[in-house]
Model the fold of this input.
Amino acid sequence: MKNKVKFEQYESMLRDWSGRMNLVAPSTLSNITERHFADSAQLADVIPAGVKIADLGSGAGFPGVVLAILGRDVTCIESIGKKAAFLSALKDGLDLPNLCVYHGRVEDYVASLPRGHNDLVFTARAFAPLIKILDYVAKTNCRLFLLKGREIESEIATAKTKYKFDYKLIPSKTGDGYITIIENCRQFHMK
Done:
C-alpha cells in the first residue's frame, strides 16, 4: 500500500513538472500508470536482487525511480540540469533514501566507477541506440537491462559489428517492445 501512495505522488509531481518542462510526451500523460510505471516496473522481475542499479539518462525517472520505489538501490544518471532537479525533487518528495541522483554525463559516471564492481547493472529506457549504450559501458563488463522497442533486432545487428556479447530478448508485458538483457560484452580488436 505504501508503494501505491508513492506512485500516486510520483504521478502528481510528473504532471506538475511536465507542465513546465518536457519530461514525457504529452500524449502519454493520460496513461502514466501503464505507459511509464508498469513498463518500468517489469524490470524488477528480471534484475537480480541485491545488485546496485545505474539508470542511464534517467530523464523523468524511468525506469530508475520506479525501481527505487520498488525497493531497489538506484543511481539515476542525468546530464540535463532541469531533469536532474526533477529527479532530486522526487527523491526528497517520495522519501527515497535508496535513490541517488548523479547530475552529469554517463561517460563521466562510468569513468568514476571503481574496478571490479560486479554488483552493478545498468538500465535504460528511451536513452540511446544499443551501440551508443555499449560505447559508454562496455569496458565495465556490467550487465545491461534495457527497455527497447521493436527495432531492437536491427540495433543488435548494428552493435554486433563492433561488439561481441550475449543477449536475451523478453517480450514486454506492456507494449510491443522487449526487455533486452546484454552480458559478456567485449569490443572487437581492430587491426
In short: The two ends are 57 Å apart (CA to CA). The chain has a mean pLDDT of 91.
